[in-house]
Design a protein that fits this description.
Number of domains: 2
Number of strands: 6
Helix content: 25-40%
Structural class: alpha+beta
Oligomer: single chain
Distance between the termini: 86 Å
Length: 142
């Protein structure tokens, strides 16, 4: 009677060792909080803003503090509209409207973030590249 082929043991042990090391490393990293994410950075500037659509399709940005117009974005503005659309969808699902402001923040490490405190939604704008950050950055300086 023919003996069935035997899987070589060395590759099997190697795979088992790699899996074991991976699981142990993940457990130790989580237990010791190693690589705890982004380093803590100081807040450099922040501004509460409201965004609204105008009848002609432009996006109007207003200061939430005093209501004055900060900027008007005309044309397609794909990144700005896409980002705001995601926030608006989350607000809609939460039963919230556009009257609550968003918080735009600049950090000491150069990051720019947009937060919706009403829903807890947070976007790291730097993740989308410097061209897209340049859309939001002037809103802190005006």
């Amino acid at each position: 009677m023919a003996r069935p082929p035997v899987f070589p043991r060395l590759p099997l042990y190697a795979v088992f060792a790699v899996l074991t090391i991976t699981v142990v490393a993940a457990f130790v990293g989580r237990a010791t909080h190693a690589g705890g994410g982004l380093p803590k950075a100081a807040l450099v500037a922040e501004r509460d803003l409201r965004f609204s659509d105008r009848a002609d399709g432009a996006v109007v940005v207003q200061s939430a503090r005093d209501g004055h117009e900060v900027a008007v974005y005309e044309g397609e503005q794909g990144f700005l509209r896409g980002t705001l659309r995601g926030f608006a969808r989350t607000r809609h699902l939460s039963g919230l409207g556009p009257e609550l402001p968003f918080q735009l923040s600049r950090w000491s490490d150069g990051r720019l973030t947009l937060d919706d405190k009403s829903t807890g939604q947070h976007v790291e704008l730097m993740a989308f590249g410097p061209t897209n950050v340049a859309v939001f950055a002037p809103l802190l300086d005006r």
